[in-house]
């Protein structure tokens, strides 16, 4: 019996060591060790972002995806995807915004691009929109956005 307990303890410790440096703060919200924060939302989902006494509710309302299929990207011009967000604070201020990804990219890793919006004390930047289009049409309900959020 003692050997079984030691074995399970070893398995738990091994699993803990294999995890990466991210931690889930709430459903869909991830904070990384380097201070970067990402909000993962599916279409028509909302998340309440803690902001002291004035939390913000971020809602992923719509998507427009005209990115070129990967196989034909070199033939395409104007590949772009837009997401439409609604940001509401507890005082009733409401901001609607769109964020975009331009080009045939899966994920924007470079923060130097100016595809961000500053509002209500935060900078919002669309980092990834998945799935990436291919030959088959995508059901809008399948879209997931990864949004970088930084407090200003």
Q: What can be said about this structure in brief?
A:
This protein is mainly beta and 152 residues long.
Task: Give the arrangement of secondary structure elements.
Blueprint: H1 2-18, E1 22-26, E2 29-32, E3 37-42, E4 46-49, E5 56-65, E6 80-89, E7 94-102, E8 116-119, E9 122-130, E10 144-151
Antiparallel strand pairs: 1-2, 2-3, 3-10, 4-5, 5-6, 6-7, 8-9, 9-10
Structure overview:
This protein is mostly beta strands and 152 residues long. Helices cover 11% and strands 45% of the residues. The protein has one helix at 2-18, and strands spanning 22-26, 29-32, 37-42, 46-49, 56-65, 80-89, 94-102, 116-119, 122-130, 144-151. The strands form two sheets. Strands 1-2-3-10-9-8 form a six-stranded antiparallel beta sheet, with no helix packed on it. Strands 4-5-6-7 form a four-stranded antiparallel beta sheet, with no helix packed on it. The longest helix is centred in the N-terminal third of the chain and has 17 residues, at 2-18.
């Amino acid at each position: 019996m003692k050997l079984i307990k030691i074995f399970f303890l070893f398995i738990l410790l091994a699993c803990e060591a294999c995890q990466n440096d991210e931690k889930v703060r709430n459903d869909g919200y991830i904070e990384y060790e380097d201070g970067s924060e990402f909000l993962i939302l599916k279409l028509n989902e909302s998340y309440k972002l803690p902001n002291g006494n004035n939390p913000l509710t971020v809602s992923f309302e719509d998507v427009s995806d005209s990115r070129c299929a990967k196989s034909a990207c070199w033939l395409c011009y104007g590949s772009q995807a837009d997401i439409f967000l609604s940001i509401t604070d507890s005082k009733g201020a409401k901001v609607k915004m769109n964020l975009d990804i331009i080009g045939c990219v899966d994920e924007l890793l470079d923060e130097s691009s100016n595809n961000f919006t500053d509002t209500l004390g935060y900078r919002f930047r669309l980092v990834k929109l998945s799935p990436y289009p291919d030959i088959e049409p995508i059901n809008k309900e399948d879209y997931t956005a990864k949004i970088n959020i930084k407090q200003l």
